[in-house]
Amino acid sequence: MTVHRFFVPPEQAAGNRFVIPPAIERQVRTVLRLRDGDRIVLLTGDGSEATCRLEAGDCVVEDRRTSAGEPAHRLTVVQALLKGDGLETVIQQGTELGVAAFRLVVTERCVAREVSPRKLERLRAIAREAAEQSERGRVPPVEAPVPLSDAVAGGDVLLAERVDGPRLRDIGGPSVVVVGPEGGFSPAELAAAEERGLALVGLGPRILRSQTVAAAVAAAVLSRTGDFA
Known about the structure:
By secondary structure, this protein is α/β, with parallel strands linked by helices.
């Protein structure tokens, strides 16, 4: 039987016995129809988890431990805004692969120029659901969009199409990678990035969709650091 996993506020899962956290009570009782004797796993976002048995409306803690699915290497993806549901793909796949955080940015060639509060909450919900499904111990934060220059610093790695120079394989395991929009970065943005000390890294001979880049790079970096297959 599937043991369902839920992220809940830490104060709702304190102690060895407590009521079913209000944040998930409806899902547990009405949607999933779980009953006394069934088990669930509660995660409080700090990298730990508790296996609980349902009993008379309460959660009885049977075991607490460190979540095994959280990567040691903390990779942040700085992602330019994308049109349609492209960002949803980036957040879902990146979370499943082990990305630690997402920063959204607006660049010169972004078709989408903003993210509504409702859509931002949707992206954060996708991160939470993907973290539960993939047995993560933390939910990657999804930051509201800011200009590109406000989200990057020297030492970050900016990924650009057909740039002469190093490839990702040549620079080890970066902690921050910057992914452009559908049209890539403008020449002015590439020049500004170099001036600020960012490493410009080529993506190889093939043109990838932006939402593909984030997943491919996350898999490559986390594989190199021992946090992926």
